[in-house]
Design brief:
By secondary structure, the chain is an alpha/beta fold. The protein is about 30% helix and about 15% strand. The two termini are about 30 Å apart. The structure holds S-adenosylmethionine and iron/sulfur cluster.
Length: about 350
């Protein structure tokens, strides 16, 4: 393993030979839901406005990533990105600067119906909507807010606006929404949405995650098998985190669509990871589970005389060089001391 970052290396390379080309940028730590696997019921101590990157700072950091460091796709996330009043102008600015960059957004869908067309017109490429249950009470229990109708309307509006193929992200919680997994798949297939189940990770602010209680990818496949037949999608996975399955009714040859399972805990894909993350306050996190954060915002604000784009790019490269080999999550509760849950919750990192 080389000890130092190789001179002249143009990209976001790490010491294990992985190159990050997929940028996840958090626009805010705030959110209007309180999903139990992410946020505490009372919310968190939000960052002040001055701590969060401005639209100009976001545009500059993305420009450095794309023009100098080999970033090839961008996902905007949070917290809830739709709570940012300047979301549409941010996307328009990004699109004007990078006409060919795939730009996607991960949202909980609350308030999306009103803004879907404006997001499309600004240049957004695609949307992921998080939806864990189609039952109003279960939805409200999981998110601690009664907004299911808004999310459903948001998904329809996004589809009409041409922001497809819409991906639906779902997290299953034992005894709460796991019984609805197959129905969620049937509903998604009917509408042409691509459903992906994400194994619950230890990124909840309440630190209530346990390895024993989380629903594994193997269990998710069994829950879906009650109504559907799954077979491995023959297409190349190409480093994508979701393992994709073709879906058919038992005994039928007709292909209904596909479903993805992101087994971050039990079948981790760290060896193929292409992600670099920037938090809402401009810190690089080389991994969701990294306990090291490298501040770029102070450099961005220092002024060109102190820190030009070269200096910012170099600090970002150094941060990524130190990316851990793997997160070691699956050892929690199994006797290994290799994993320590980060202090930040998913919402505060940017999922
Ligand atoms: N608020 C937006 C949303 O919910 O889509 C964007 C941010 S959210 C942190 C991004 C994704 O992370 C969501 O799909 C959510 O379900 C997922 N997520 C949050 N906490 C998680 C956890 N502990 N384990 C697995 N996925 C989680
Ligand atoms: Fe908010 Fe998304 Fe976290 Fe739910 S998962 S609390 S919607 S940031």
């Amino acid at each position: 393993m080389p000890a130092n970052f190789p001179a002249g290396e143009p990209g976001l390379l790490d010491q294990y030979g992985r190159r990050a080309t997929d940028m996840r940028l958090s626009l805010t730590d705030k959110c209007n839901l309180r999903c139990t696997y992410c946020m505490p019921s009372e919310g968190l101590a939000w960052l002040s406005k001055s701590q969060v990157m401005t639209a100009e700072e976001i545009l500059r950091i993305v420009r450095i990533g794309v023009d100098r460091l080999g970033v090839r796709e961008l996902r905007l996330t949070g917290g809830e990105p739709l709570v940012r009043a300047d979301l549409v102008p941010i996307i328009a600015g990004l699109r004007a600067a990078h006409p060919d960059l795939p730009i996607s957004l991960t949202t909980n869908g609350v308030g999306l119906a009103k803004r879907a067309q404006a997001l499309k017109d600004a240049g957004l490429t695609r949307l992921n909507i998080s939806l864990d249950s189609l039952h109003p009470e279960t939805f409200a229990q999981l998110t601690r807010r009664p907004f299911l109708d808004q999310v459903l309307a948001g998904a329809e509006a996004a589809s009409r606006a041409g922001l497809g193929p819409i991906k639906i992200n779902a997290v299953l919680m034992r005894g709460i929404n796991d019984g609805g997994a197959a129905d969620l798949l049937g509903w998604s297939l009917q509408r042409g949405y691509e459903l992906r189940f994400i194994e619950q990770m230890p990124l909840d602010a309440d630190h209530g995650w346990t390895r024993d209680n989380m629903i594994t990818a193997a269990e998710i496949r069994a829950l879906l098998a009650v109504k559907f037949e799954l077979s491995e999608d023959p297409r190349d996975r190409d480093g994508a985190p979701a393992e994709r399955f073709e879906v058919r009714r038992p005994g039928s040859a007709e292909l209904l669509g596909t479903v993805g399972i992101i087994a971050s805990v039990t079948e981790p894909f760290c060896a193929d990871c292409k992600r670099t993350r920037i938090t809402a306050e401009g810190k690089v996190m080389s991994c969701l589970f990294s306990r090291v954060e490298v501040d770029l915002l102070a450099l961005l604000r220092a002024g060109a005389a102190e820190a030009d784009d070269d200096a910012i790019a170099a600090r970002w490269q150094q941060a990524m060089w130190a990316k851990p080999k793997a997160h070691g999550m699956d050892h929690v509760g199994l006797g290994s001391a290799g994993f320590v849950q980060p202090d930040r919750s998913m919402s505060a990192i940017g999922g």
